[in-house]
Design goal:
About 30% of the residues lie in helices and about 25% in strands. It has about 180 residues and is α/β, with parallel strands linked by helices. The strands form three sheets. It has a seven-stranded mixed beta sheet with strand order 5-2-1-6-7-11-10, with helices on both faces. A two-stranded antiparallel ribbon has the order 3-4. α1 packs parallel to α5. It is globular, with a radius of gyration of 15 Å.
C-alpha cells in the first residue's frame, strides 16, 4: 500500500494502473497528488493487486478495478495511468478486468467526473465511447485511432473535464493545471 498524507481537501482520485504500468507516469501522478494533499486510491487493471512496472518493479496497489465499479461517486476523477496498455488491451480485451475498466471509464465520464491520462489514455477513453467532441492529447502512434474526439499535436490538452498528455514526458505540463482544478473543488 502507498502511504498518504492526511488531507483536509475534498478532492479524491481513482488511479487505474494497467499491468505492466509505466512507472514514470504512475509515480508522477502519485507524487504530485501526495505533495498537494490530494487523496487517491490505486486500482489494478488486473485480476490481483500485484502488478509490475514496464521495468519490472513489483507493486502492490490498493485494490482491483472490479471493486471500483459502482463506487465512482466516491471520487472526483479517474486517472488512466498508461503502460503497455494498447498491446496488452488488444490481447486481453475480453478479460473481465478490461471490461470492468471500460465500464468504470464510462461511468466516470457519464457522471461528469474529471478524466485524466497520458499516452494511450485518450485511446482507451475513445474505446470506452466517451470522447465525442473532445480535444485530446494522445501518443502520436495512437492518434489515427481517435475518431470521435479530436487528437491534437499538443503535449497536453485540457478540454472541459478531460486532462490528457501525449506521453509521461508531458505530464509536467498537464499536472499543474490539473492540481489547480482539484484544489478548486
Amino acid at each position: 500500500m502507498f502511504n498518504r498524507k492526511k488531507t483536509t481537501m475534498a478532492a479524491k482520485i481513482a488511479v487505474l494502473a494497467v499491468n505492466p504500468v509505466n512507472g514514470s507516469g504512475l509515480f508522477q501522478y502519485l507524487e504530485t497528488f501526495y505533495e498537494n494533499g490530494i487523496d487517491y486510491r490505486v486500482y489494478a487493471v488486473a485480476p490481483t493487486t500485484e502488478i509490475k512496472t514496464n521495468s519490472g518493479v513489483r507493486l502492490i496497489v490498493d485494490d482491483v478495478v472490479a471493486r471500483l465499479k459502482g463506487h465512482e461517486d466516491e471520487f472526483d476523477g479517474v486517472v488512466f495511468s498508461c503502460g503497455d496498455a494498447v498491446p496488452v488491451f488488444q490481447e486481453h480485451s475480453a478479460e473481465p478486468y478490461n471490461v470492468d475498466m471500460l465500464q468504470v471509464l464510462q461511468n466516470f465520464a457519464q457522471k461528469g467526473k474529471i478524466m485524466i491520462g497520458h499516452c494511450a489514455a485518450a485511446l482507451l477513453f475513445e474505446k470506452a465511447g466517451v470522447t465525442k467532441g473532445r480535444r485530446l492529447a494522445v501518443h502520436p502512434l495512437a492518434k489515427p485511432a481517435i475518431v470521435h474526439g479530436t487528437a491534437t499535436d499538443e503535449a497536453a490538452e485540457v478540454d472541459g473535464n478531460f486532462y490528457t498528455a501525449q506521453q509521461e514526458h508531458a505530464l509536467p505540463v498537464l499536472l499543474p493545471r490539473l492540481i489547480d482544478r482539484l484544489k478548486a473543488l
